[in-house]
Specification:
Order of helices and strands: HEHHEEEEHHEHHEEHEEHHHHH
Strand content: 15-25%
Number of domains: 2
Radius of gyration: 23 Å
Distance between the termini: 54 Å
Oligomer: single chain
Helix content: 40-55%
Shape: globular
CATH architecture of the largest domain: Alpha-Beta Complex
Number of strands: 10
């Protein structure tokens, strides 16, 4: 940018630098508790963090900006809930511990519901917050109007966990009407800690502000994943045995496709454990393989003959430890289900 005089300044530069700084990073220290947001994540990464190992790949500027983008959306949703009169709690620390296992600790995003004063909420929206963007006030007022009509006697208390994501991931969640297993476990922790019955994961598409809500109940089968994860990590920590490395490519039963394993790509120890310099190097190496394998799965669901290259890809999948016959059965069933829906 050309400098016109010594008063010249750049808003974009200041904004970007402020987001990239983020909050000060604390030095790594050994800990004996599991963070709720990590349940379902890479065992080996979490083991190293709990041992106090310094990351070989700390968050880069782009990652820090993504974290802050999520915080912006959390701030907006928190404001709307508060002004609608249905915010009961925010950022409360919650702990739960099974007997003989490590404790899990985390901060919930929001607890909402109760019996609000709808008229008071409308008054506040109309008269006290004119400085806010009109679309936020409109959305908040519409929420109050709808709740007043449908729930005059009040609302059930629900835990809300907000997650911002790309439109690509949003559409995957929307198509399958399911949430990430890790996000479900995180939300279940808050339900378990509060002896609450119901929580919702809210996905917001950062590209177009769409919202998707996926429910999680307590009790439910999610507890099995939550408990097993804590039990497994407790075993590694107490025995001081390092967990195995993550596989670079995974098959997702919910979505019926291969993908580069985010637990590796986003690893804080990517260089230390896998010898890769950065996420881009990981993506460049493994995403094309996953895409090639998925093209073979498409040919299987379309009942097309396998070419020599397809057969080679099937051999690669088997060599990597995947059960091809089980995968064929799963994707065939999904294809039939999709046809039946149509």
């Amino acid at each position: 940018m050309p400098i016109l005089n010594n008063m010249q300044w750049s808003f974009a530069q200041i904004w970007n630098e402020s987001l990239e700084e983020g909050k000060p990073q604390k030095p790594m220290q050994p800990r004996d508790r599991i963070w709720a947001s990590e349940v379902g994540g890479s065992m080996i990464d979490r083991w190293l963090k709990m041992k106090g190992a310094e990351p070989s790949n700390p968050p880069n500027p782009r990652s820090l900006r993504k974290f802050e983008a999520g915080n912006i959306w959390e701030c907006i949703v928190g404001y709307v809930l508060k002004r609608a009169g249905i915010l009961l709690a925010q950022q409360d620390w919650l702990k739960y511990q099974y007997e003989g296992l490590l404790p899990v600790v985390g901060k919930l995003d929001f607890k909402a519901g109760g019996k609000p004063d709808y008229d008071k909420a409308s008054h506040i929206i109309s008269n006290e917050f004119e400085w806010l963007p009109p679309f936020i006030s409109r959305a908040t007022q519409k929420i109050v109007d709808r709740l007043k009509t449908q729930y005059p006697d009040g609302l059930a208390e629900i835990i809300l966990e907000l997650k911002s994501c790309s439109s690509f991931m949003y559409e995957m969640y929307e198509r399958k009407q399911t949430a990430s297993p890790q996000h479900k476990c995180q939300l279940f922790h808050y339900l378990k800690s509060l002896h609450a019955h119901e929580g919702h994961i809210i996905y917001v598409s950062k590209d177009d502000a769409r919202l998707l809500e996926i429910g999680v109940l307590n009790p439910s089968s999610v507890e099995t994943d939550y408990y097993n994860d804590i039990k497994e990590l407790t075993g590694y920590i107490t025995s001081n045995i390092q967990p195995p490395l993550e596989q670079p490519i995974k098959f997702d039963n919910d979505f019926g496709k291969f993908s580069a394993n985010w637990k590796v790509g986003y690893s804080s120890y990517l260089t230390k454990l896998y010898g890769l310099k950065c996420q881009k190097e990981f993506d460049d190496k493994y995403k094309p393989i996953a895409e090639r394998w998925n093209r073979v799965l498409s040919r299987i669901t379309e009942s097309k003959d396998m070419t020599d290259k397809n057969k080679t890809a099937l051999e690669e999948m088997t060599k990597a430890g995947f059960n091809i016959e089980e995968i064929k059965t799963l994707i065939s069933k999904e294809a039939k289900d999709e046809t039946a829906k149509a």
